[in-house]
Amino acid sequence: xxxxxxxxxxxxxxxxxxxxxxxxxxxxxxxxxxxxxxxxxxxxxxxxxxxxxxxxxxxxxxxxxxxxxxxxxxxxxxxxxxxxxxxxxxxxxxxxxxxxxxxxxxxxxxxxxxxxxxxxxxxxxxxxxxxxxxxxxxxxxxxxxxxxxxxxxxxxxxxxxxxxxxxxxxxxxxxxxxxxxxxxxxxxxxxxxxxxxxxxxxxxxxxxxxxxxxxxxxxxxxxxxxxxxxxxxxxxxxxxxxxxxxxxxxx
Length: 251
Ligand code: PEP
Description:
Elements: E1 5-9, H1 16-29, E2 37-41, H2 47-53, E3 60-64, H3 81-85, E4 89-94, H4 97-101, H5 107-120, E5 123-128, H6 132-136, H7 140-155, E6 164-167, H8 181-196, H9 200-205, E7 207-211, H10 219-223, E8 230-233, H11 240-249
Parallel strand pairs: 1-2, 1-8, 2-3, 3-4, 4-5, 5-6, 6-7, 7-8
Bound molecules: phosphoenolpyruvate.
């Protein structure tokens, strides 16, 4: 039985006060009987603050939005896994489409970051997904296969044991245009089958999240699909009330 994950990706948002309000809002709204694993991923400079605010609860885990493939050295602007560990970070988003598209992280860059994250014992959340153009050209499966195979080539199939994948169609991110539950399920099933060709146990145990304009109103029908194990949530994770509705949808 795979536990549902509801992971917030706060991207480049949040003042100190905003982080306090949001963390406290989520904390206070949790019922204590929520079934999902809840993760928040603030911008790196606020991880220390979030760590402090979460020090009295284990109901919310801390995630980071990226990590370097290097452990230390002359890599301006990067963050190492050891630094993240010092802030009780447990999960690291890697290969988000914004990192791939805007910051030009290649499949190989992403695979190297994934490798370092995995080696450290943190849990990578590997984002994969096609652009609208690629979907219209019927290239969805090919793109996802390439993104996942880059990690398998660099780290081996065993590296997916205990890792998380997020299927995030680029055309659905921040656009208000969600994949239908059927569209998402189709791709999730494809991902699980492609992993099963290499290792059936890893494939059946891995949590595959859907991301792309998930909100309180559409989360339940997405999460109800057989191969959808929760969501990676951008915009809707910035409002406690909306994020809590999504957490509730996982119950
Ligand atoms: C994301 O950035 O991972 C994401 C899914 O964003 P949104 O929920 O805003 O589409």
